[in-house]
Amino acid sequence: MGNAILLRRVAKVATFDSAQRELDNVDILIEGNRISAIGTDLEPPAGARIIDGAHKLCLPGMVNCHHHLYQTMTRAVPRVQNAELFEWLVNLYEIWRELTPEIVYISALTGLGELLLTGCTTTTDHLYLFPRSCDGKLIDAEIQAARELGIRFHPTRGCMTRGRSHGGLPPDDVVQTEEEILADCERLIALYHDPAPDAMVKIALAPCSPFSVEESTMVKLAELARKHGLRLHTHLAETQDEERYCAEVYGMRPVEWAEKIGWLGRDVWFAHMVHVNEAEIQRLAETGTGVSHCPASNMRLGSGIAPIPLMLEAGVPVGLGVDGSASNDASDMLGEVRHALLLHRVMNGAKAITAREVLA
């Protein structure tokens, strides 16, 4: 079998299975897209590729739960090095309004390559601005890059409807109408979404944030996603500015607003979730709503520290996200693991979180 791989005598295998088994000096046989055997002195099929596992640690591939690949070419922009989120966005939108499919393709190729080199084998992406100066097929360009590299890719079709002329942060030429958004979501679902459990490409829907998308659009996108069995994603409770916005516009806190419009559930995960209280954490746990923790980005932008130990204790599903390179400076999955471990220890003590919990 020409596509078989045998990892021979791997020094340490951390399985992260339900029994948390750790195995020493074992062989791992991979046939097709499945691990077919784990044991000692396994016989490789004819033509199998053999990799020496001596002195090596083997982990399951990591999953990146939040990213903005289009930002890869705008890392370390000098004028936003000391900016918080809203100021940072306003400045960078002036660069991002010039995006083209070619730029997004190159950005995705670079960012996805960085992820693969740091142990990530599955990633999502959140692309939410579509300049009117290009043909709009930016997610198509990202999918092309992912297929060329062979990474499992679950992009989210983001959007914004509230431009500066309507009190929003982005220029009007990167936002879209509700009709345009819904039509392109349907196009992407029909063209790319694979519902199989181990699919290499799945589509999710991801309006950008409470302050950049009309409430009616959030509701319609949730309806569309559930019609097709897709997941939902957005930024939520990231900054105190967002908290104030929700209080002024909606008369409630971000999580309360999300629940009101039908945006809690096992098919939903939020990025950041920094400014949440214990009651809100409990609602996330009760509804099975997921959280993508983005420690490097939150530190870089001074957004705050998400109460991840409390979420884990309550049973909230939590994953890690590198976030965009414009607020993290790299698509470094192992670096994000380290940031998460150290950040919560400095806040809550050395026993607050373990390396195994962060890697899991």
Q: What assembly state would you assign to the polypeptide chains in this entry?
A: single chain
* Intertermini distance: 32 Å
User: How many separate structural domains?
Assistant: 2
Instruction: Give the second-level CATH assignment, the architecture of the largest domain.
Output: Alpha-Beta Barrel
Total number of helical segments? Answer: 13
Q: Name the average pLDDT.
A: 97
Stretches where pLDDT is under 50 for at least 5 consecutive residues are none
Shape: globular
Describe the structure.
- With 360 residues, the chain is an alpha/beta fold.
- The protein folds into two domains: 54 residues, Urease, subunit C, domain 1 (Roll), CATH 2.30.40; 298 residues, Metal-dependent hydrolases (TIM Barrel).
- Helix content is 38%, strand content 20%.
- The protein has 13 helices and 13 strands.
- The strands form three sheets. Strands 1, 2, 3, 4 and 5 form a five-stranded mixed sheet that branches. Strands 6-7-8-9 form a four-stranded parallel sheet.
- Helix 8 links the parallel strand 11 and strand 12.
- It is globular, with a radius of gyration of 21 Å.
